[in-house]
Amino acid sequence: MAEQNATNTADPVTLKDLFIQFFIIGAISFGGGIIAYERILLVEKRKWLSSDQFMAFLAISQTMPGLNSVNLAVLAGDLLRGKLGAFIAVLALIIPGSVFVLALGLLYSENANHPLANDILMGVAASACGLLAAITLRIGGDNWKQIKSVITIVTTFCLMSIAKLALPVVLLIMAPIAIYLYRPRANS
Amino acid sequence: MSHLPSLFLTFSLLSLLAVGGGTAVLPEMQTLLLQNFAISHTQFVHIYSIGQIAPGPNMLMVLVIGYQVAGIIGAGVVMFSFFLPSSILCFYAGRLWGRFGESPWRRSVQDALEPISIGLMASGVYAVAKASIVSPITIILALITLFLILKTKINPVLIILTSGLAGLIALQYF
């Protein structure tokens, strides 16, 4: 990917600019939607990537393990400034939230046994649970309507939560089965 | 200090297992943290929930776990072990992509991993629910959040913070 760089950007992106842009995303993306912020930066604001390139990067990010938003930063950083660019983009993306979350964590460590803190956390945790359920439903999208998806979802859930198998085992069982179910069709 | 190698190994493994994003490893993380570092399910869910208030990639709460286990160095170790292995893998996958291009099997793998990661997320919901849905008030708050996230565009951070306050007020009066 790095070799393509010279051909498709007239002005090379500076590491400083890369850092600042991803830092801003890392600092303002309260409540999620980080992929959307990345698309706005990379495709619309700076035009560092074409829309097709972005979709290809997103597909790689979703296929590989790791957080999609972080993987996207790796790929975009590599395209723009090689290995160092990938490192800088990821670092910039996670620094603001890391500082934020550690400050909250410090507060939590010091007040975890305070009754008032516990009452607040009870509501916060219940709400976070509702949020996670909503995100799962939404990401599921059309998967909830296809029989083979629903079977895969339910089987994975049962292996993990009912049979209580370890995650590597669940993946070793489910990945080959699911890849077989979703194998490329000759006519599509 | 003796926890650092164990922290490193645990989060490197989780990093490489995080198919379809970080939430897929929540149930496994909860189990491993209880086994290896005696972090209770309630503590885990508290830290997870706090993490939802922060900006940036949504699993940064793992740093707080590192901090709880081994202080600020623990947070640093977790940051590198949770983000570096998957990033290196993705980096080289990205470079190989140019060489092999789009294959129909890539699409198959992505399509196949999607329902698996949704199943794992459902397990995550179940794991978080077991530790957070503990009373009628918590059921109501979770359902209201679910409804608001699905039906409105209100920022989740606002909903979570309001829910914290609502829970506090409800507990004072009921």
Structure description:
The complex is a heterodimer of chains A (188) and B (174). Chain A has two domains: 2-112, no CATH class; 146-188. Helix content of chain A is 78%, strand content 0%. Chain A has eight helices and no strands. The longest helix of chain A is centred in the middle third of the chain and has 44 residues, at 68-111. The radius of gyration of chain A is 20 Å and the shape is flat. The two termini of chain A are 28 Å apart. Chain B is mostly helical and 174 residues long. Chain B has one domain (3-132). Helix content of chain B is 80%, strand content 0%. Chain B has seven helices and no strands. Chain B has helices at residues 3-17, 26-37, 41-51, 62-100, 104-132, 136-151, 156-173. Chain B is globular. The chains are: A mainly alpha (188), B mainly alpha (174). Chains A and B meet through helix 1, helix 2, helix 4, helix 5 and helix 6 of A and helix 1, helix 2, helix 3, helix 4 and helix 5 of B.
Strand content of chain B: under 5%
Using the alpha-carbon principal axes, give the shape of chain B. Answer: globular
Mean pLDDT of chain B: 91
Largest interface: A-B, 97 and 109 residues
Q: Could you say which structural class the secondary elements and strand pairing of chain B correspond to? A: mainly alpha
Largest sheet of chain B: none
What's the SSE pattern of chain A? HHHHHHHH
Report strand % of chain A. Answer: under 5%
Key terms for this structure?
heterodimer; A: 188 residues; mainly alpha; 2 domains; 78% helix; disordered N terminus; B: 174 residues
Write the layout of secondary structure elements.
The complex is a heterodimer of chains A (188) and B (174).
Chain A: H1 2-8, H2 15-28, H3 34-45, H4 51-63, H5 68-111, H6 115-140, H7 147-162, H8 167-181
Helix pairs in contact in A: 1-5, 2-3, 2-5, 3-5, 4-5, 7-8
Chain B: H1 3-17, H2 26-37, H3 41-51, H4 62-100, H5 104-132, H6 136-151, H7 156-173
Helix pairs in contact in B: 1-2, 1-4, 3-5, 6-7
